[in-house]
Design brief:
The structure is a single chain. α3 packs across α4. The protein has a domain of 78 residues: Arc Repressor Mutant, subunit A, CATH 1.10.10.10. It is mainly alpha-helical. A two-stranded antiparallel sheet has the order 1-2. It is globular, with a radius of gyration of 17 Å. It contains six helices and two strands.
Length: 121
């Protein structure tokens, strides 16, 4: 894990939220887990753009901060699933609002994205 040269300011609520929930694919991972206990490979099937390695790294961070719990069964082959904790569930109302905002503004963002792609060419 990265060590900061300057002390982190965790008195700011936004910084705390981004420390726990910010990061590539974390909100999508939480959304996938919200649908029930899931294995990393099942999350990967739902979020195809994310590599399994990145999903596992993000799950490790969510586990570290207590947003998810890991349930490992003593079976062969080993079966590991993740489930949201109360901390992880507490972000869901915000996640729903983000999803609604994204759906409402998708057309605008897509058109701007296409403009940027054309400029880059």
């Amino acid at each position: 894990m990265y060590t900061y040269k300057l002390e982190e300011d965790l008195d700011c609520g936004i910084r705390v939220a981004f420390k726990v929930f910010g990061g590539k694919w974390k909100l999508c991972i939480l959304d996938a887990i919200n649908k029930g206990k899931v294995r990393p490979t099942e999350i990967h099937k739902e979020i195809k753009m994310a590599s399994l390695r990145v999903i596992e790294m993000q799950l490790a961070e969510l586990l570290q901060y207590g947003a998810v719990i890991k349930i490992a069964e003593d079976a062969y082959p080993k079966k590991t699933e993740y489930e949201l904790t109360p901390l992880g569930k507490s972000i869901l109302p915000i996640l729903i609002q983000i999803d609604q905002w994204g759906a409402a503004n998708a057309a605008v963002v897509k058109s701007k994205s296409l403009e940027t792609d054309r400029i880059a060419l």
